[in-house]
Amino acid sequence: MNTTLRFALFSVLMLSLAACTKQTKAPEPEPEPYVPPAPVETPVVDDGRYSPEDLDTDSCLRQRVVYFDFDQDALKPEFTAIIGCHAKYLQDRPSARITLEGNADERGTREYNHALGERRGNAVSSAVQASGGSGSQLNVVSYGEERPVCTSSNESCWSQNRRVEIVYTAK
Amino acid sequence: MNRLLMLLAFLLVPLHGLHAQTLEINPISGSAAALPIAVVPFDYLGASVAPDVDLAAVVRADLNRSGSFRTLADRDLVERPLRQSDVNFGTWRLLRQDYLLVGRVLDDPAGGYRTEFELFDVAKQERLLGLALSGRPGNMRDIAHQVADHVYEKILGTRGAFWTRMAYVTAVGLGRDTTYSLMIADADGHNPQTVVRSREPLMSPAWSPDGKRLAYVSFERGASSIYIQEIATGAREVVSSFKGINGAPAFSPDGSKLALALSRTGNPEIYVMDLASRALTQLTNHWSIDTEPVFTPDGRSIIFTSDRGGKPQLYEVAIEGGEARRVTFSGQYNARATIEPEGRIAMAQGAGNVYRIAVLDRRYGSGGETRLISPGNLDESPSFAPNGSMILYATRENQRGVLYVVSADARVRQRLVLADGDVREPAWSPFRQR
User: Fold this and answer.
1) Minimal Cβ distance to A152: which of B176, B380, B399
2) CATH topology of domain A54-170
3) Which helix (H) or strand (E) holds B152?
4) A143: distance to nearest CA of chain B, Å?
5) Contact pairs from chain A to chain B, CB under 8 Å
């Protein structure tokens, strides 16, 4: 097999993996049928290190949102894999920087939610550091309830707003 | 047909962003205790152009909104006296009015208008007030609010708070395409003006006690910072931009200090900043969330929100620091206090998914008496009028934020709604200097 073919096959595999696991990201309003996620086995490139292209192609790294329960900042077990791969990315690429944007749903007061969003950001930051990311690569900003992605007053919307977004400011 | 309705709806959108909606009288508590007063139209008797404001209508709307008065409907004004010599007290007694307000607008020799008004006690057939106010043509709503303040104060013995303003935040758009504006408007929602506009969130406006400056939180530097801005000139400065949260500013009653919440130690704590020296005093030191500080009217302590007991509740701490004492004991979730001059505290009270405005009067009982004064479901950000008679708050209706004003006794409630976008975080101004 020549390199081009190998790369092409690899890309196809990656894309299909990405397509399969996308559904685990969040409750999205797309009417696509639910496909159970494939076991997350991060495809390993030659030296096992992530490269910036992986941010767009790797099924784990493409997941950039961590969701929380109401008035909670405890990380739910289903997000352990995401935290792990972003921590590995930071380890592999010391020049990479992440801003963790903490958010809350609309219930409760705005400044309390400003603080709650920071707690959530800090929880993700601690977990990324525990998995090998460096604190100097991480920055937490809380937007409280000021940046909702959904504005209906019901649980399906609130659950999308209680989140930490992982934003790469340097790849 | 639909298109025609839409066109009509479009034509009906007011020119001013905010406008007052119909008054809701709470059918349970009723408005029986409200004092009946007839406000007769103030005719223009000058030789130039009549003012573009119906002064009597503005005065009536103010008095009704307070919950303390019930004005006679325009159609029931069978006589329209303009001065004392025109008044037949028998007529107003038959109409069961306790008070009668008459007035007229004249040309002021110095320019603008001169508004003369007289207030009568119908039963005693006695004149209680006879005053004149001068105003420029563009200022006639201000004059009407001042007339309402004089009437309120003469009858109830408490200064009126109609000639005041409010600050609030609007958001137009969703997600990263949202534009945020910090606005000020008259307390009835008229004359909105933009103080600052940003593509990043704006939060937590707070008035200086002289009403000349606003402190607020802006994310325009990428993370939260606290600004103080002079309203008249637009000049502003960053007073707090530490790592982490810079939130919840509140001026001290003398204007020399700013209480705020900072998480520069890694956890949100309450601080007091001396505005002249910018020196910070840390008042709390606890692993919990401590935020939303407000000074008590005597300036000696601070009421704040903390979840140190598990759920958010209000606590009080002396401005020298020390042990914080819990203030709220009824309700699962009590946060974001606002205090009026007599010491009553309004807050957002949550139970399950329902958030309402509650008023705590600590003068009664052991832990004080708490009353809910709003119907829910997502009521927040209460702000007392400077005389404690009314409370502004924000809620959500049809996926957008709207403002309500409710009398402190919950008898009367009125919605103030922006024509476009989401309105939140109303902050009632201090009294204006007469």
Assistant:
1) B399
2) 60s Ribosomal Protein L30; Chain: A; (3.30.1330)
3) helix B140-156
4) 8
5) 99
E strands present in B14-158: 18-25, 35-39, 43-44, 69-71, 99-107, 113-121, 126-135
Domain positions in chain A are: 54-170
**pLDDT tens-place string over residues B310-365:** 999 999 999 999 999 999 999 999 999 999 999 999 999 999 999 999 999 988 77
Q: Report how far residue A109's alpha carbon sits from residue B348's, in angstroms, rounded to the nearest whole number.
A: 7
Chain B CA closest to residue A155: B353
pLDDT band at B22 (very low <50, low <70, confident <90, very high): low
Q: Do A108 and B261 touch (CB under 8 A)?
A: no
DSSP string, B111-148: SSEEEEEEEEETTTTEEEEEEEEEE-GGGHHHHHHHHH
For A18-149, where are the E strands, in sequence order? Answer: 65-67, 97-103, 138-144
Residue B91 has pLDDT above 50, yes or no: yes
Tokens read off for A158:
């609130």
- C-beta of residue B207 within 8 angstroms of C-beta of residue B226: no
Nearest residue to A82 via CA among A170, A161, A165, A169: A165
Cβ atoms of residues A33 and A167 within 8 Å:
no
Instruction: Say if residues B414 and B374 touch (Cβ distance below 8 Å).
Output: no
The pLDDT value recorded for residue B328 is 96
- CA gap A154, A98 in Å, rounded: 30
HSE-up of residue A152 (Cα within 13 Å, Cβ side): 6
DSSP string of B170-213, one letter each residue? EEESSGGG-EEEEEEEETTS-S-EEEEEESS-EEEEEE-TTSSE
Strands across the sheet with B213-218, in order? B202-207, B213-218, B225-230, B236-240
- Global pTM? 0.87
Interface of A with B in 65-104 (CB under 8 A): 71
The pLDDT > 70 percentage for chain B reads 91
Tokens standing for B98?
Answer: 């306790």
Written as six digits, the tokens of B15 are: 């020119």
Determine, for residues B174 and A149 on separate chains, whether the beta-carbon distance falls below 8 Å.
Answer: yes
**Best interface-test mutation with B: which of A65, A112, A155 has the largest number of B CBs within 10 A?**
A112
Please tell me the distance from the alpha carbon of residue A153 to that of residue B102, in angstroms, as a whole number.
47
Distances (CA, A) of A15 to A5, A51, A52: 15, 16, 16
Instruction: Provide ipTM, 2 decimals.
Output: 0.90
* Closest listed residue to residue A11, CA positions, set A19, B116, B415: A19
Mean pLDDT score across all residues of chain B: 91
Is residue A44 predicted with pLDDT exceeding 70? no
Count other Cβ atoms within 10 Å, centred on residue B403: 24
